[in-house]
Specification:
2 domains; 6-stranded antiparallel beta sheet
Length: 275
């Protein structure tokens, strides 16, 4: 079932692999003309599909590396390098598949962080009394600096605070990556997002929820998931100039060699030497 979902989600890449295998099989079987036809039809359809997506992106004000990919596919078909055109299709669809996998993984991690975010804080009504156990549940966003909170065993610390209890053990693996519990003493800072140990503790709030450590981590992860990587932005920025330079270089090589594609002379047969 998982494999079928992957094939359905990345069907273009899977289809490109199948078509490439079929074309190579036809080529070695002595039917290169049939393989050329199959490759031309498949790549042509892929080029049309990519052009439709490019037009949509241009209307949104975005021009990417698809320009160079389309030019490369059309050029390889024009000079008869149909296997190279299929490899370009596989590279492009494979790159999109990898980008989708990375995006889904980032979304899962962000969802896990959001699900773990505390939403309720136990505010101690009479914090001056050491024996007072009357608490009032409040939304984490309503907690203010100076409030005294009760963190029960195994609960997540809702906001950054200073430990009022004598000692406390906290699991900070989700924040720092430290696998072992960390012992904090009275007066030391306890970070939001840490999991309390087996004993209930009291903390005094030093930062509101929006300014606490865990919320800052969530904001960074959310921003990273919604933004494009710097290298991707750089590549998209120079996509059109790079395509123009590539066309100039290809045209110059064509003019000098007189051949639009690779030399038809086989490299495996050495030139004859006349006596």
């Amino acid at each position: 079932m998982r494999v079928l979902r992957g094939i359905r989600r990345y069907r273009v890449m899977v289809l490109a692999i199948v078509v490439l295998a079929v074309v190579l099989l036809l080529h070695v079987s002595g039917m290169p003309a049939v393989g050329r036809g199959v490759a031309t039809v498949f790549v042509g359809l892929f080029v049309v599909w990519t052009l439709v997506g490019m037009v949509r992106d241009v209307l949104r004000g975005h021009v990417g590396l698809d320009v160079l990919a389309v030019v490369a596919m059309v050029a390889t078909l024009a000079v008869g390098e149909y296997i190279a055109s299929l490899i370009i299709v596989l590279m492009l669809s494979g790159g999109e598949a990898l980008e989708d996998v990375a995006g889904r993984r980032a979304k899962r991690e962000l969802t896990a962080l959001l699900d773990r975010t505390p939403r309720v804080a136990h505010v101690i009504v009479h914090p001056r009394s050491a024996d007072a156990d009357e608490i009032q549940d409040a939304d984490v966003d309503d907690v203010v600096v100076g409030d005294v909170l009760l963190v029960r065993p195994s609960e997540i610390v809702p906001v950054d605070g200073t430990l009022l209890s004598e000692t406390g053990s906290f699991d900070e693996s989700s924040i720092t990556g430290e696998s072992l519990p960390v012992t904090r003493r009275a007066g030391e800072e306890v970070l939001s997002g840490a999991a309390n140990g087996t004993v209930a503790v009291r903390i005094r709030v030093v930062r509101r929820s929006a300014d606490s450590q865990y919320q800052q981590i969530v904001a960074l992860v959310r921003g990273a998931a919604e933004s494009r990587a710097p290298v991707v932005r750089l590549a998209d920025r120079f996509a059109v100039p790079f395509t123009a330079v590539s066309l100039v270089l290809a045209g110059t090589a064509w003019a000098i060699s007189g051949e639009p594609g690779r030399s038809p002379r086989s490299s495996s047969s050495p030139p004859r030497v006349r006596s």
